[in-house]
Amino acid sequence: MKHLLSAGDLSKDEAVRILDTAATMSATQSREIKKLPALRGLTVVNLFFEDSTRTRISFEAAAKRLSADVINFAAKGSSVSKGESLKDTAQTLQAMGADAVVIRHQASGAPLRLATSGWIDAPVVNAGDGMHQHPTQALLDAFTMRRHLMPDEGTGMGLEGKRVVIVGDVLHSRVARSNVDLLHTLGAQVTLVAPPTLLPVGVHTWPCEVSYHLDATLTAVAPDAVMMLRVQRERMSAAGGGFFPSAAEYSRRYGLDAPRLAVLPDHCLIMHPGPMNRGLEISAQAADSANSTIVEQVSNGVAVRMAVLYLLLAGADSSTTERTSR
Ligand code: CP
Known about the structure:
Elements: H1 12-25, E1 43-48, H2 54-65, E2 69-74, H3 86-95, E3 100-105, H4 110-116, E4 124-129, H5 135-149, E5 163-167, H6 174-185, E6 189-193, E7 209-211, H7 214-221, E8 225-228, H8 233-238, H9 247-254, H10 258-263, E9 269-271, H11 284-287, H12 294-313, H13 320-324
Parallel strand pairs: 1-2, 1-3, 3-4, 5-6, 5-8, 6-7, 8-9
The structure holds phosphoric acid mono(formamide)ester.
Residues 52-55, 128, 137, 273-275 line the site of phosphoric acid mono(formamide)ester.
């Protein structure tokens, strides 16, 4: 693995290896081990052209727990606001000795462009590009599901036979795309539920079931995990569109509320990538329920991002000597 650009690029063996490595890294989460020396002397650049709380902070924490130096770059307040291009920004980072670049960008495909342009020779990690992909989010979601749903099998496993329902604004969601790809690779059965207006063209060719009816789906599928997606009102406004269906209708037909919680199996996980619109796609009762893994997902994100950085920069597939000698 030279870069991590899309969850769809991962084979089952590669994905399981990341999850297994993250399981070993999670000891640092409980602070039993404060830091590992694995990336000492290397520099990780966090290049964020779009807002983020969880992903940016957890990549920073992950790199620091592996003893790497971290440079945080936010487009706001940088020369990007003076019109500097991605190419010139990338070459500036290369000149500063970036050993890995973590990029979030509003344009789908920006991480691929960075990885294949020849502007830099460091591994590139996609931290979310437009409506396209968010592979480390899918990995941390799978890690969380595996911990709860496959506790006896332990490492080496995917999510074989587990049933996952993903609900909401699929159209604008890089999280949904990444999760469908990865969960399918790991052997889970995925059902997407959304109003027709919030489903992308071509969704029926994805490796999952598609439904417009949440109540019927929850009853028929009896899911092991329900993942609620954020309604991305900012992308709807940017596209010049209104919010259809209306917020009230959306919440009534697609929100996870108390009556819907009551029909879920007792063990069913309640998931959300954050940030949440409480009262729209998810009620406070659901978000704060005993089965909610929403806070744990954030915490697991650090271990998963440690695993990704470790495998790209110091794993068996890459040459540590070559990178440290640059
Ligand atoms: N889940 C997620 O990507 O959150 P942030 O936008 O806060 O990074």
